[in-house]
Write a structure and sequence with these properties.
The protein has 497 residues and is mainly α. The radius of gyration is 22 Å and the shape is globular. It is found in: Cell membrane.
Length: 497
């Protein structure tokens, strides 16, 4: 049954309630990004207050990544099967409670547990929220506009989190943990009123319990292994055995999915070249950026002696550029298509990273740092919404949650893997006598790796620029204006690989 939301969207009308729905979903995405960026600056204060070691502090970050990256596949398919609205609202409520718990606890293990629960809940809100958008707004101009606004909220949340964390930590690190709770509760109350009713998938072939167990176990073990590898050693027996176990679990998962009547992931969706490019592009995009932010934060605070707030403001131009482009990206995607925008975006990202290789210990911000931030901000504005649009276009409504979960898994796993690789490269080149220049020199190989990851993303996405077959012209008799617009759009959209 078609909801009023879907009817309004299909007719090209953005009603106040439709705007409200999008704002609720944007609030959840904003919170996810805000929470990730805020905790990093607060870690030294947390460690001092609770008496935590460096290895324990790492798990305040890693615990969130473990819950988020490990359960995204399950979260996406659960939204398809149990109802996107229901899954989104329950998970958002859990996120609010976990935020409250994280700000009140007085022990490291409880804080880590609260972070894991928050990551787990985000693993359900992220794919559910994205699939609500893609099933409410029809493919084409309207969906592109909605997704550009949605993904911009993620970048805005990340940038604001950096600034807010610098301000709030000055008062108390607990405020950085508590801040998401009231925002999540407001979004939850609004969501109960505004989000469209969704039904469970009625014709599914049962629940893929073996696939859910194997998929979740393999993702959890993969993220855990990658996060721990820099500490225990990439060539250690523990790391190698863990990777072997991941390979066995993934092999068993694929075998189960190929035979399951209702798979957690329908493997046929990965036969699309556009889908493969979106997933690999997401890994390269987020993996390179997380590694860049990690090294640049160390450079600014440890070597230049900048404060947390000063560092956050240095990153701010990139976030501002993304936010200002929000209302324009939908029209830009309509005009140029995702393959071109992804290629241009990754090219800007490569240049931005490469320019940063020349920094020294006495940089002039406007000359040495700002150009990279602006180029990377422009790249994020082009790449992030284009990845979401390309991954979800041409996918049936009943599989939108699955594809959304797969895309978010690529983002998180890419971030975890490439950050661990960059950390390992920097550690391997660390000087015995830690002079400032020596430390900076040890960062450069890491920046080279980051640039290389972006180059790989550029090469992957550029393959989508080859001559593409287009659909033949369609004559629509007695069509309404919205239908004619949809038909015209379908003529411009290339046939999926």
């Amino acid at each position: 049954m078609t909801s009023p939301h879907t009817t309004a969207a299909s007719e090209g009308r953005w009603t106040p309630r439709l705007w409200g729905t999008l704002l609720v979903l944007c609030a959840a995405m904003f919170l996810d990004a805000l929470d990730v960026s805020m905790v990093g600056v607060a870690l030294p204060s947390i460690g001092s207050d609770l008496g935590l070691s460096t290895s324990t502090l790492q798990w305040i970050v890693s615990g969130y990544i473990l819950g988020y990256g490990g359960l995204l596949l399950l979260g996406g398919r659960t939204a398809d099967l149990l109802g996107r609205r229901q899954v989104f609202l329950v998970a958002l409520g859990v996120f609010a409670l976990a935020s409250l718990l994280g700000g009140l606890v007085d022990s490291g293990p409880l804080l880590i547990a609260s972070r894991f629960i928050k990551g787990l809940s985000a693993a359900f809100t992220a794919p559910a929220g994205l699939s609500i958008i893609t099933t409410t707004f029809p493919q084409g101009t309207l969906r592109n506009r909605a997704l550009s606004i949605y993904t911009t909220c993620a970048a805005t949340g990340f940038s604001m989190g950096l600034v807010l964390s610098g301000l709030l930590t000055e008062a108390s690190w607990r405020l950085t943990m508590l801040l998401p709770a009231p925002i999540a509760l407001i979004a939850l109350v609004a969501g109960l009123k505004l989000l469209p009713r969704s039904t469970r998938e009625k014709d599914h072939n049962g629940y893929d319990v073996p696939g859910a167990v194997l998929g979740t176990a393999s993702m959890l073990l993969l993220v855990f292994t990658v996060v721990q590898a820099p500490e225990v050693g990439w060539a250690s027996a523990r790391t190698l055995l863990s990777f072997l176990a991941v390979a066995v679990l993934l092999t068993a998962f694929v075998a189960v999915e190929r035979r399951s009547p209702g798979p957690l992931i329908r493997l046929g969706v990965l036969r699309s070249g556009n889908q493969i490019r979106a997933q690999l592009g997401a890994m390269a995009f987020f993996g390179s950026y997380v590694g860049f932010q990690f090294l640049v934060t160390l450079y600014m605070q440890s070597l230049l002696g900048w404060s947390a707030l000063h560092t956050a403001l240095a990153f701010l131009p990139a976030g501002v550029l993304v936010a200002l482009s929000a209302t324009k990206m939908g029209a830009i995607v309509d005009r140029f298509g995702t393959p071109r925008l992804l290629t241009v975006g990754f090219a800007l990202m490569v240049v931005g990273y490469a320019l940063f290789l020349g920094v020294d210990l006495d940089p002039v911000y406007a000359v040495a740092i700002l150009p990279s931030m602006l180029l990377i901000g422009a790249a994020c504005a082009l790449v992030f919404p284009s990845l979401n649009i390309q991954a979800t276009n041409g996918v049936d409504d009943h599989e939108q949650g699955m594809v959304s979960g797969l895309l978010n898994t690529s983002v998180q796993v890419g971030g975890a893997i490439f950050l661990a690789v960059v950390t390992a490269v920097v550690t391997a080149n660390a000087p015995e006598n830690a002079t400032p220049q020596g430390v900076l020199d040890s960062y450069r190989p890491g920046l080279v790796v980051i640039t290389g990851i972006a180059v790989a993303g550029l090469l992957i996405t550029a393959t989508g620029l080859r001559t593409r077959r287009t659909r033949p012209s369609v004559v629509v008799a007695k069509s309404t204006a919205p239908q004619a617009e949809a038909a015209a759009h379908s003529e411009r959209v290339p046939v999926r690989d």
